[in-house]
Amino acid sequence: MQKKILLVTGLLVLLVLVFVVYRSQSTAADETEVLVEAKFGEFIIDVTTSGELEAKDKIDINGPSEMGAANIYQTNIEDLVPEGTRVKEGDYVAQLDQATLLEKIKQKKSDIQQSESKYSQVRLDTTMELRKARNELINLQYEVKQKKIILEQSKFEPPATQQQAQIELEKAERAYSQAKENYILKEKKARAQMQEAAAKYYEDRNNLVFLESLRDKFTIKAPKDGMVIYERKWGGRKRGKGDPINIFDLTVATLPDLTRMISRTFVNEVDIRKVGVGQPVNLTLDAYPDKKLTGKVVSVANVGEQKPNTDAKVFQVDIEINESDTTLRPAMTTGNTIIAAVIPEVVFVPLEALHPQGDTLTYVIKKEGISFHRQEVEVGESNDDEVIIKRGLAAGDIVYLSNPEDFESARLVLLAGKQEN
Fold it and tell me: Domain spanning 33-54+257-421: which superfamily?
């Protein structure tokens, strides 16, 4: 009887030891296993990017458009108010470098002196020339009168003398007639010379007036009330002090309409196929993490561009923000989640649960009681974190995110119903 009790006691102790060992191994395994349940419901395909706020509409603060007329094709911004400065219409915004303009003003003043001097000289010369011509005309007129008197007195002279007097009169009249014609031509020439000299003088004087008025426009004033935002140049850098403007790009700064904002972002060439005009967007602000905004895609670039220092191609996407918020400012960084598609009532799991086998087979490691097997699945659309399972899993199935020991040798269940051990 005592031996029987000892035997039973030993069996109980052995069972306890086996149970303890099994539990310790099971606990150790549980600590390393990462499991997840296949979800069922609405699946969102989105594209996440970062962007920068810009005003949808803005007024450009430009340098003078008359620069080209003054043959000044480029100048530099000598001074510019700090970005974010609030200005009233007519307030000072910037000062452009006047060095080239002042040199032209100096040269034009010299030109005026020369043209004025030439105008005076032409007027004096033509006055003297016409006076001389008039005196000559008067003398010829007297000579005609004198020849007429001689002809009248010759009527008592022989016919030859009378004929000679008649010839002399005709010569005097012809000389007087030619002199009158020459005087008319000289007068026209003098008038043309005076007009030419006067035109050059007035042209130089008007040009000086124009240049001096242009000098005032090199001091840039605000065209209306607003907040000064620096113009962004090609390549993304903002235009500031010392930067040039030219007749093809006169913008010094801008006055944005802060009531209508867009987030300008760039989507890589892999994801751009998912993005289209009209898609809804959820936005956050780095400056105000708790603020949530909404918007929609309003434009997608047809042509990509190269990112600096990389081989990646990106496409510009503009997102119009629905809300009008006084805290929104240009150049604020945004987080943009573009909702490319919403697929209802599907099963999905994290991307980390998928395992490829060859080029055509994909499986998950499905938990089966205290064991597991490899389950082939047919996948659908995916987002950055999860993927749709068209066949192979049901809602609530448990799959591994971590790889259990010897998982590659586990039984493989194919979708066609065949099993591979």
Answer: Efflux pump adaptor protein, beta barrel domain (2.40.30.170)
